[in-house]
Amino acid sequence: MKYFKFILFFIAIICSLPAFSRTIYYNNEDLMNDQLKNFESEVQPNTEPDEKHLYLLALRYASKNEEYKNKSRIILEKLSKSGLSDAKRSLYIFRKELKIVDEKAEEYLLESAQDGNAIAQKEIAYLYSNKKDSLDNKTKYNFWMEKAANSGNTDAMREMAVNYFTGDGVKRDDSMGVLWLKRLYDKAGRHFDDWDLLGAVYETGRGTPIDLVKAYMCYDLEGTAGIEEKARIAPKMTAEQRAEGLRLSHEWQEKNHVYTMQSLGLSRQKDGSYR
Fold first, then answer.
1. Rounded Cα distance, 113 and 150, in Å
2. pTM, whole model, 2 decimals?
3. Which DSSP helix (H) or strand (E) runs through 87?
4. Cα separation of 234 and 212, whole Å?
């Protein structure tokens, strides 16, 4: 019985491999851009480029003259027919830049989104938000934006948090707003920068208990932008609470190696510089 379960598990892994191979970068544009910069050093002379390098080649051609743009389109169409989600999304971008946003272009984007491409899901959501305002389009917008958020796209997570806080296209639900904001915080890690929104949540108690210490921490992590917010809530706090908020802020900065100007001992000068 133990071996039978192992065999079933092994078969499941093998069957899942083709799905993974149909995407390369769709939820990591930074990685794609880094590899595009190193493209020439990665491709060896006189070798047949694999799927990833064909995709990079198409992106490189897309930035050149019309002859190369046509080669880019041919490569992307070939990769799209083979099922590469990133290529389908790129064909939509390709046509969009040529100002050909037609049914065919949207078809490429929809296919990519249906494949699970988080960036395509976010883009198709924006597509519906820009169409004639209707309940159906708002429903589709939120459907695809939530898909993108669940796929790990941080922009979509931020969008869902704000939508639930404002009730834009969804029933207002502060607890859901906090849920998406905290998911964004966990996913973005050291790149999280929505401290003003998170601070306001802790200050006002929207969807979560009021916590002025955490609000003070968030406003301190805003840097100079949070000075007024800290001054506003400081009178409601004890000296010990303010000190704890600063301690939590400095602890986060040390852990993530991201520092505000104040923590570095710098202050804003009249010319806009910091010294």
1. 13
2. 0.69
3. helix 85-97
4. 9
